[in-house]
Design goal:
Blueprint: E1 8-11, H1 17-33, E2 51-55, E3 59-61, E4 69-71, H2 86-96, E5 104-110, E6 116-119, E7 131-137, E8 140-144, E9 154-158, E10 163-166, E11 175-180, E12 193-199
The protein binds N-(carboxycarbonyl)-S-(naphthalen-2-ylmethyl)-L-cysteine and fe (iii) ion.
Fe (iii) ion binds at residues 119, 121, 175.
């Protein structure tokens, strides 16, 4: 039995094998139009180990000089992000239960050696809307804590097809990805893990 912080809803095996592979096809199409980029930390310019792209009206980006932000265009091509595919919009509708659409879908790609340090997501204009996350490919060790960095944390292994919905009190919890378990999925031919994070960025009407 796993006790999760209040407001974190884990749905193991939310997507079946067929839905996962159709989603990967849609992500390939997004990456063709909006290539993966290497995000860099604000101020230090240190590159993150995760590569990223986005689809939807707004995408999350970061670089040394302008820091964390949402913008309408890809940081290197300058082109608008590809439209959110129906597969992704449908997942938002079903899991969030929101009457309004998601605005941003961040696509994180983890090589087997990549990780993401403990952080809060606070670059959105509002924190009332839920956040929906989908894991594809290799299993990861996902850690979450409370709203203070020093709060105790608990960890779960997120597998390909799992969904996580963050709402209410959990929305500003610290979280991160400690490690990827290589060769735990055959979904991605080259291995690694993809995470989709679906969000509302601006206040809905
Ligand atoms: C818990 N991505 O891109 S998504 C991120 O697996 C990020 O790539 C991770 O954290 C990944 O910012 C985790 C799941 C997630 C997203 C938002 C949260 C978990 C969260 C907000 C609050 C608490
Ligand atoms: Fe995050």
């Amino acid at each position: 039995m796993q006790i999760l912080p209040k407001g974190i809803h884990w749905v193991p095996s939310y997507l079946d094998a067929k839905a996962q592979s159709l989603l990967v096809d849609d992500i390939r199409d997004i990456v063709t139009k909006a290539p993966l980029f290497v995000p860099c930390m604000p101020r230090t310019g240190k590159p993150m180990s995760v590569r990223m792209t986005n689809c939807g009206a707004l995408g999350w980006v970061t670089d040394q000089h302008q820091g964390y932000r949402y913008q309408e265009t890809h940081p290197t091509t300058g082109i608008q992000w590809p439209q959110m595919p129906k597969s992704v919009a449908d997942i938002w509708e079903e899991l969030s239960g929101c009457a309004y659409p998601a605005e941003a879908c961040l696509v994180n790609f983890y090589e087997p050696s990549a990780k993401m340090g403990l952080h809060q997501d606070r670059d959105e204009e509002e924190y009332l809307s839920p956040v929906v996350s989908i894991s594809l490919g290799d299993t990861c060790l996902f850690r979450m804590g409370g709203t203070n960095r020093s709060d105790k944390t608990s960890s779960i292994k997120l597998k390909s097809g799992d969904a996580v919905m963050l709402s209410g009190e959990s929305r500003l919890c610290f979280h991160g990805v400690d490690r990827i378990y290589p060769d735990t999925s055959s979904l991605l031919k080259q291995g690694g893990r993809i995470n989709l994070t679906l969000r509302r960025v601006t206040k809905p009407e």
